[in-house]
Write a structure and sequence with these properties.
With about 120 residues, this protein is mainly alpha-helical. It has a domain of about 70 residues. It is flat, with a radius of gyration of 23 Å.
Length: about 120
């Protein structure tokens, strides 16, 4: 850890990391008991050492929402999990309709056809 952090800060952050790792270990173990070891997107099966490539994805993206029935989880391989999060990042930048159907606000004010009528009149 960088030396510009005090010893107390380093201990605090290490404690937060331990808590996060324990929480993740808990819901991952639960998800592996509830669901078959298959990626929910690509359908690959995992066993043995390859089981570590199977991750728990939170459907609502809230890592603190861990219902015991697993209704907010799906098992995804590391590749599909990365793809899922990348798609959501790309959607955040999109100007098209959102998952809820409403159009996102336009980020650009440039209109390439603003004076098209004037141009057409000149011809």
């Amino acid at each position: 850890m960088p030396s510009n952090y005090s010893e107390g800060d380093q201990k605090f952050m290490a404690g937060l990391r331990r808590e996060r790792d324990e929480r993740m270990k808990g819901y991952r173990e639960q998800a592996l008991k509830l669901f078959p070891p298959v990626c929910g997107h690509c359908g690959r099966e995992f066993e043995g050492r390859r089981l570590r490539e199977l991750t728990v994805h939170h459907k609502d993206h809230d890592h603190d929402n861990n219902p015991p029935d697993g209704s907010n989880w799906e098992l995804l391989c590391v590749y599909c999990h990365e793809n899922e999060h990348s798609r959501n990042l790309a959607a955040d930048w999109s100007e098209g309709p959102t998952a809820r159907g409403e159009a996102a606000a336009s980020m650009s004010t440039y209109n390439p056809f603003a004076n098209l009528g004037d141009i057409m009149k000149k011809k």
